[in-house]
Amino acid sequence: AGRKRFPEKDRDGEEMGQVKRYGRKWVAVFWAMAAGLAFQAVPVQATEVARPAVTASQLVAEEKAAREFVRQKRYDRALAVFRALAEKGDPEGDYGLGLMAARACGMKRNDGMAVAHFRKAAQAGVPEARYALGTMYDTGRGVRQDIRQAIVWYERAAAGGNSAAQVRLGTLNLLGRGMPRDYRKAFGWYGRAAKAGDAKGLY
Question: If you placed Cys at 162, which of 22, 97, 157, 194 could pair as Cys (CB 3.0 to 4.6 Å)?
Fold first, then answer.
């Protein structure tokens, strides 16, 4: 008998052989892909240069140096130090930058910039910055004049022991500006300022 054209056994054997060959091929491909994916999944760690921690004493020393530069009218040096402090997250740096912008020290007077720096430092709890922000609202420099907002910041500054804010609150109570006139509160604020050593509280 002649050989069958499509013998089932032979076909099955050939197909099984193909399956085995393709199986081995695709298994190899699968593992290659898996290895590639695994390689891609490994996060590449960026090399970072460790920055030395800044201590509170170092910040205080830099703040003192910046104020000394201002006293010496070396405004470019003072600005550099205040900016560095602000970048480190020290609110005293923002307060210093606000003062320099408001007083045109080493730059043109910029009330808007001053308000922005004062606000940032005030929100961080610096009493002097809170008083400064109050004066900006009080006089309408860099912001719309708003005596009520001024009082809010004066009160926060006064609560933090700022004697200038205490004197100003005494005056506002005495004059009845932005609030009902109240002599008792006025002299109460003056008294607190005087106890803190502010001569203006003695008026």
Answer: 157
Amino acid found at 158: A
Nearest 5°: CA angle at 179, between 152 and 200? 75
Residue 116 main-chain phi, psi, to 5 deg: -60, -45
Residue 45 has pLDDT above 70, yes or no: no
pTM of the model: 0.73
Question: What distance in Å separates the CA atoms of residue 108 and residue 201, rounded to the nearest whole number?
Answer: 33
Query: Which pair of structure tokens corresponds to residue 92?
Result: 């005293």
Q: Which amino acid is at 32?
A: A
The alpha helices in the chain, defined as continuous H runs, are: 8-41, 56-71, 75-87, 91-103, 111-123, 127-139, 147-159, 163-175, 183-195
Sorted by sequence, the CB contacts under 8 Å of residue 78 that are 6+ apart come out as 66, 67, 69, 70, 96, 100, 105, 106
Residues 6+ apart with CB under 8 A from 121: 91, 92, 94, 95, 98, 129
DSSP structure class, residue 90? -
Contact assessment for residue 201 and residue 192, using Cβ atoms and an 8 Å cutoff: yes
pLDDT band at 5 (very low <50, low <70, confident <90, very high): very low
